[in-house]
Design brief:
Helix content: under 10%
Order of helices and strands: EEEEEEE
Number of strands: 7
Distance between the termini: 33 Å
Strand content: over 45%
Length: 83
């Protein structure tokens, strides 16, 4: 399962793939089998009411033991601009 924790004031406006689970403060999706070194890409578009930057954190969780748990989280720092 991958979960993107959205910062306060960020509202999801779109996801790819479209079947991501969208909640008030997070977006999540079951990933299925993901072997060592494999990659899955998900896109989430949000509308943010805070500037100049928004920081979102993501993490993956599994029932399978993971010998390298220190690489299961990441964060994205995005500059917010007006269109």
């Amino acid at each position: 399962m991958v979960t993107l924790n959205l910062p306060r004031g960020a509202q999801p406006t779109g996801t790819d793939p479209a079947n991501l689970r969208v909640g008030a403060d997070r977006v999540s999706r079951p990933v299925g089998v993901l072997g060592a070194g494999q990659l899955r890409v998900f896109h989430v578009t949000v509308r943010a009411d805070r500037r100049p930057v928004v920081i979102a954190t993501a993490g993956v969780h599994s029932r399978t033991p993971d010998p390298k748990r220190n690489n299961n989280t990441d964060r994205a720092v995005t500059r917010v601009t007006r269109p």
